[in-house]
Each structure stands twice: as structure tokens, then as C-alpha cells.
């Protein structure tokens, strides 16, 4: 064997001891690792504390225990010592229950405390503790009392020098004890200061705790106790590469330390993390980092540090027991800038074959897995194989590692291998926070299976068609909020031509729908139905090939969507279901919409209605004549459920509530109903995993019907009569299965609730019959919402479902008792998006839902048509700041903007301390002005204007030219040559911006071309033709500013934007701005139905302010105290 002198890779001493030891590098060869013998953290009694997290008064405290049971009906008590607080819960096989712990248990400062948390159970359980405050959190496994010891060595992670405290806590069990602490850092305790090297002797009573804090590093501190104690170690808020975060872990006593450790890196860490190794006696360690192996000798109490990167997992073998801790130093993953966390690395000999792992709310959750390379294929999650995971070998061992994405939000998973032990770490990241701990191993939580009955075969009948008719029912009060009515139209045949019109109104929109694309069309606000009356303003959609439609009825904080069914699915008999909430005086409602033929509609009322100034009691039969494409809306304070509707000719029926409240604030809800002829007999209703209370399921019958139903493990039968509607409560984790002797209608009413910090309001949706399940679905995520797909599939086929041709990845499938189906909840993320979910051979059910909080705010980019300027960035060489403007629509009242200065986001206005930079929002524009005379104006959509002082003449370059007054030098490349075309010119001046990306859209013949038939439509006066019409509001400007360029741009953008009305309005607004800058007066051109006026948050029209220019010696400048607005003169 060749031996050479070398320096060990990425290691450094935490103390001076052992600094003279020689370091030896040896050739790489696989080493023997002892066979694992799992010893999980299960037990029947536990004691824990919640150490100080950041400052005691900081943030919203959220302290929790996650308790996993392994025996059915396990009885668990949770109490706080000397506080009179006690909780009782049941922990069942394979289930995890979380308990909120009172805020007052937090330890603060260096002192002795009584408020320890005691947990006892009559069968074995496992516990994970979460200590959370806003943007600062960590988790730790809580070990049972039989794993406590009498000797420990502290490890506290070191970060930036910020004055925040390292800390540890010692917790006594049932017996009083004397604790000796050999401190490695200065501590002030009970009014007296103790220097590093001092021995503290601290008496603790039964279930008492002591917390010690220091500005110094406390690593290497030795703790010796008469009786067993628990020890927790960490930092109140440690920062390294990012902002600070609370970190904490329960330590294991010296008596159970191991000798073989594998430390996998984090695959998303762009920098490096740290590994701490502590020894309790003279110990030599052999370690391998990547391909380099070395040896180091440690003395008692010494702690050494290793850097670890993605390409260099760390393997350590020791001559005696050591303690290994992993410190994630923080980093960035995409747009997530996550903060540090801390966790203990398990000894290889303690690996298990089964683990429970818990995903935390608001975090991206991951399992970092270490397994024998030959056995990696046998690792499963929730009894399903791991999908799309990259295993990387660990040099010098027979093991490999991988990072497995568990998704976002609360979740509980079982990861196991039937024959081979392996290791699992549980980590999570989100913006400004992170957590990490060892996964809980030891006992399988597999649940028993139930023999399912036979279910009907499926025969998909989707909502596709070529003609549709719909209405937008009253949403809250007619005058409330900013209306946003949209249709989302999906095509299936290339170049499907679609027209959208409003009956008896001057509104016509045309779009082209293509496969794999969804186009949104804004519907005028005047279409909203108001009160009980008949209406003409129905919305008619026609296409030359099949399409499908989703309708959105949105006002501020109150919205719902519904699938719009084609006219061939309309019928002549319906039963209404209107959800019941709190008695708040707001109306239940339904609407009946006639198709192309006049019809007589008979309505058998179940609630009192006032219609056309006449009151009708419940039980009355109304006979209402409707003309072609007419609608009637009926409203009532009473419940309208069971109201029967019979029509001569086919009609559409919509049912809901103007604003219903149950568990939270009220929300508009609406669904298009299916006629009795389209009802089914077999239904599965999955629960919402994030519903803390319960939701409601309404079941309606049109004749004498017997239903058999199963909720969780309970089965029962109920007999219904014609017109009867019964209600079931549904709560996670128990789904509802219903089988009926005749067709029934099943409606799900989400009653509102809380998910993390989101307080979401109610919504309503129709549950599809199992026989109508399809193998392919289009699903639409809505802007400003957390969007989810609730999937029901045959258990044996669930692994074959894909989203946009990719496997679903990690997703928790839960069996539906009494059936051969399972259900799962898939997080689609935030923001508007269209995705396709499908299975190659097996139909399945899918529900689309979204939740948002009233106080929520979503950051996004405004994207209209083909002209998109996502960000505008500035960094002159002689200027000390990097500026990035990002548009964000917090409401429908107008566009706001965040400015990123030197990587930090600010709300406008922004004025730097030295006044080098000033940024203001005014109207639809942002104005940035620097102390050297640069002025940048950006309208957040189309136009960016850059003005510089005259002294920069001849010294400029880039997209705006070189400011030398010569027309022949405007399209110069950075090398001084002339660009071959505009696309090449634009690409040449791209600047790399952190967190942003630019894509060359097209070049030459690859650019999209607008079809002539579309151009003919968009050239008309009520589209782009308004710009050039000889009698338009812009006529006076034609001689000063030619409209031809603006007209051609409008045609192109509107064509590629599929007729988006916002693109049209921005195109016209762009020409109007040029005219106003030329000091031409423009006549009013906006109206309530065409590019309606911008309004501020109070509803008052924004004041109009003109640009004022003054010629100065160095160039054009803006003067005056009033920041100018870019509003038009309408």
C-alpha cells in the first residue's frame, strides 16, 4: 500500500488539541461496514423541552408534537409539568396525530425551568417535535426515556458573528439529579458569569430543565449527571450563507455512540454544508470525502469540522464511539432561499428497514436516503416503488444515496425495504426557513387491506362539445369588488376557431384553440345576473371543432369555478342543491338558461322567492317562459335544495349561493348541474387532507332510492324518497363511498378552513359518477391560489398516472375502504397553469380545487401576448446598486411593483440612504432616477424608456443605441459590427440576471405568422382598427405620431395573444401615451365595456397628470414635485 503525507480534504480543528497529528492519504478501497441492527426511537414515555427560538418575543409561535402509533387504539397523554395542562389523544396503527403545545413552554435565557413536556402512552409510539416561528424553525426526533444517559458532549453550530446565542438544555426525568457542566464558552447563569473552562454544578428537580446560552462556541462542553437526563443542543438563530434560523437536536449519550457513519450531501446545496465530529476519548478516525481518504486522531472532548458538497459524500469509521452532526448552512434552490438546520447523523449499525417520515406544512419536504447499492431498487414509499430518483455511489463503501422529493405540505409516509436496512434523513426547505432530523425508524406501519366489492366499469363522457351556453350568477352583492369573469377554453384539434358572444350585447371575441393549449377570454362585467329576474345577457360559445370550457366568476376574496357542459348534455329535468351555511341573510340561488329554442320552465319551489315583484311561498309552482338564449335567476333566504325544475326544451341549470359561510368568511359558490337523465349510481368522495374540521356532501334522489354508503370503516344504508336531499359530514382521513339503486346527484361543499397560514373560504363542486371516469383530464390552476388535484384511481393502477407526460413522483395514495380504489392529493402549486393528467389504460376520477387566504399576496410576472418584458435591470459600471423591477398584482385594482435593489426586495417607493437611487410607482408606470441623471420609465408590460444626460452622448451602447445622432449605427453588436437582423441584435445584448432567464422566441421563418382570417377580424374598428379609423378618438394625433407602427404591432400581438382584451387595451394605451408625450389631446376612448377605466382601491378614478419637460443644459429632465402619471385622458 502506498502511503503519502497529505492534508485532509475540507477539515479543520475546532480546538487546538491534536493539531500536530500527521495526516495520511491512502489508496481507495471498499471497507467493511458492520451489519445494521435497528433500534428506533419508539417508547412509552418521553420528556422534552422547546428551547428558545430566536428572540422570545419574535414571530408567531407554533410548537407541535407529531405522534405516530403502532398499535390500534394507543392512549397517549401529553402534559406540561406544573402547569395544569393535559391532552389526551388516540394514536392508531399507521396514523400520525399532531398536538399543539402551549406557547408558554418556550425556554428563554440561561435559567432553570419547570415547563417541560411529558408524554406517556400505553403502547409504543414515536415523536417528532416542531419548534416553529415565522421564518425560523427546526424539527427533532424525541427519544424515549430508556435511551437517556448520564454523559453527553455538546455540539453547537458556528455561523456568522451576529451576537446571537449558542445554547443547550438538560432535562431531568422522574428523579432529581445533580448535573455537572464543563463549559467550553462563557455563560451567565443566575446572575453570575462563568468563564470557559469552569465546572458548573446544577441541581435539578424531577422534570426540571436548565438552559444555558453563550455568545461563544459551546461545542465540546461535557455534561455528567447522577441520573439519566435528556440533552438538546443548538442555536437560537444561526446564519452562514443566508439569513439565520433556529436549529436544535436531541443528543444521544456517549454510551450509545457508534463507529461507522455515512453523511450524504444535499443535492440542492450550491455552496457547502458542515459536518461536526465529536470524540469522548482518544480516537482515530478514517474518513473518505469523495475520492480522497485520510486519517485523523482526536482527543477527549475534541470536535472537528468537515465541509461537505454534492459531489463528495462523507464516510467515517472510528476506533471508538463518536457523535456526528450535520449543519446545513443555508442556500438557494431555484427561487427558494432557505435558511440553516441541524440534525444528528445515525450510525450505520442503527439503520432500520422501516421509517416513518413527516412532511411539514409550507415546506418542500425531502427524504435523503442511504442504502446498500445492491438493494436500492427494493426501497419503497407507501408500498410503492420510488420513482424517478437518481442513486449516487458513496466512494469507499457498498452504499449509495439519493434525495427523494416528498412534495409540499403536511404528509406522513412509510419508507421501507423488506430485506435490507438503510438510513433516512428528513429535511425541508422554504423561503427563509429550513428543518432537518433523522427519520423515525423501527416498526412497520402497514395497514390491513379490505376486500373490495365489484364496481361498475367506466365509460368516459367528458364535457367536450362545439356549442355552449352559460351565465355568470350573482357573486356577493352586485356592486361588490372588482369583477373578473373569464372562460378558459381548451382545444383538441389544431387551429380550432372559437367565437364568444353575449346575447343582445355588442360583444364578440374570437380565438384560435390548439391541442395542449388553454386560452383565457375576459367576459364583460355587465353579464353578471343580479337578483331574481329574467336576463338576456347570456354567454354563447361556438367552435368548429370540439373544445372544453371552465368558467371563473371572480370578485375580490370571493370566487368559484365551474365546468361548462356542451348543449348536447343539457336536459329537461333537474333537482337543485344549494349549500347551507350560517344564517347570514345572504341568498341561495339558481339559474335556468334556455338554449336556441324558447321554452316553458316549471319550477317547484322549496324556498320562498320574490320574483318580478311578487312573493311566492315554498311549495309554489312557478311557470316561467324563456325566449331563446334567455335566463332566469331565482334567489331565496331559505334553502332551495330539492327544488325541481322541468322544462319543455333542454336548458342549462346553475346552482349555488351568492356568498356562503360555514367555518370561515363567506364565498361565492356555483356549479352547473347535470340533468336527472345524466345521474349515476356509484360515487367516491375523497376528503380534503388540509380540512381541520369537516366538509359536507349532499345526495339528492329523483325517485325512491336505496343508498349503501361507507364512511371510513363504518357501513350503513339509507332510503330516500323523490326530491329528498340528505347530508353527510366528511372529514380526513375517511373518504365516503356511495352505491345507489337508482341515479343520484352528489355535491361536495367545502365549508372553509385553515391550512397553515391560509384561511380559505368555501367552494362547491359536483362529484362525478365512477362510471364516468376518464383516462385523460385537463386541469387548470388559478392565479393567486394554491391549486390541488384530488385523484381517485384503482389501487392497482395508481402508479400509472402521469402529469404532462411525467410520473406524479412522490404522492401518498390512501385506500378507500370498501372499494378497490385509492385516493391522493396532488399539489399543483400556485398560479395560473394548464396541465394534463392521464393514465394510458385505466380511467380515474379527478377534482380540481384551489385555496387562497384573504390576506394572501402572490408575486408573479405580468405576461400579455407576444411582447413581454418580465424585468428591467440596471447596473451601470459607475453605480453601486443592482436594480430589478418585478411586477406584482396584489388585487384587481391595479398593478403594483416590487423593486429588487442589491438582491433585496423593497416595496415602492424606494430611496437609498445616499439618494443614489429613487424609484416611484405612478399610475401604470415605474420611474427610476439616479443621482447621475439616468431616468428609466417602465409600464410593466410594453414600454421601457431610458433617458440619460447629454454628457453621455457618444458613450452609450446597447438596445437603445449609442447616442451619437447617426441612424446608421443604431443596430451595432457589442463587437462594433452591424447586426444581421433585429433578433440577432436583441440576443447579443442579453445580460445574465440572477434568478431570471431570457429565451430567444424565434428568428426568421420560425416566427409565428398571423392568419389572414384573424387579421380581418382584428382590423375592425372595435379591435386594432380604432387606432387608424378616420373618426376615432386618435384622429387628431395621426398627423403628429403615425399610427401605422402601433397598428401593425397591435395586429401581431393581438393575433398571438388569441384576442386577449388586455393585449388590445395595452396596444391602444401605448399609442395614446406617444400622443400625449407629443402634447396632442386625445378624446375619451375607454368605456365600461371596452378597456374600462383604471380605478384606485377606493373606486375613485385616478387623477390625470401630464408629463412636464424642461430643457436643461445637459438634456431633457422631469421637473416638479408631482410624480407624473401615464393615464389617458378618457
From TrEMBL:
<dbReference type="InterPro" id="IPR001846">
    <property type="entry name" value="VWF_type-D"/>
</dbReference>
<dbReference type="InterPro" id="IPR035234">
    <property type="entry name" value="IgGFc-bd_N"/>
</dbReference>
<dbReference type="Pfam" id="PF17517">
    <property type="entry name" value="IgGFc_binding"/>
</dbReference>
<dbReference type="InterPro" id="IPR014853">
    <property type="entry name" value="VWF/SSPO/ZAN-like_Cys-rich_dom"/>
</dbReference>
<dbReference type="Pfam" id="PF00094">
    <property type="entry name" value="VWD"/>
</dbReference>
<feature type="domain" description="VWFD">
    <location>
        <begin position="789"/>
        <end position="999"/>
    </location>
</feature>
<protein>
    <submittedName>
        <fullName>IgGFc-binding protein</fullName>
    </submittedName>
</protein>
<dbReference type="Pfam" id="PF08742">
    <property type="entry name" value="C8"/>
</dbReference>
